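Subgroup meeting minutes
Present: P.N., E.W., G.H.
Scribe: E.W.

1. P.N. recapped why we're keeping a running log of single-chain structure predictions: easier to compare across weeks, and new members can see raw inputs and outputs side by side.
2. G.H. added today's entry (244 aa).
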Amino acid sequence: MSPMIAIYRRELRSYFSTPLAPLFIMIFLVLTSAFTFYLGNFFQIGQADLQTFFLSHPWLYLLLVHALSMRSWAEERKSGSIELLLTLPVTLWQAVIAKFLAAWTLIALALLLTFPMWVTVAWLGDPDNGVILASYIGSWLLAGAFLAIGNAMSAVTRSQAMAFILSLSVCIVFLLAGYPIVLSMMQTVFSQSLIDAVSAMSFMTHFSSITRGILDLRDIAFFLINSAAWLVATVLLINLKKAG
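Output recorded in log:
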């Protein structure tokens, strides 16, 4: 077994050896159901789609994903186990990617367990299954970007609470950057080219495009590149902490 797979399995097992994974999944399922059927007025709208379901995901990820990422490196540094981890026959890159993939797998499982909602919508009407599938992919990619940011912020500090606050703050900036109210406020001060650049960096801009059923490679690449960039930042930050 390769060291990277060993760390991946260890991390994934650690989520389920504590209440963290069951709680994460349960809270995610309960809140998505509440947003869809109650706050989203699913039955009153009378449309056989999952738009309200997917539009709640960015806000739920803001709260829930960081609960997974805040412990990834902050806890390792606080307990001193990071030194032991880095003495194993595994590169720092492999350790960072393995930890990221373990948490991303847990999020994928939570998303898969919402499948009954898709079945319910299909039973009630005739939804566009292509749009729903694209939205699931977009949701998972969005969660990956949030998770990568959280990993980088976790590498900055020994405190899980501080890691949570830092990652939450960064993700809010990336999420709100594309909102019309934010862009309209910027129009009074900044040029249109700068406003367009800010909008293009917004997670919500690309996620909304995918939830409309437009599975554009540019949107997919945006989330993958963002995730990769923050994982690179995680490696650099850990190396800086080691050097310091």
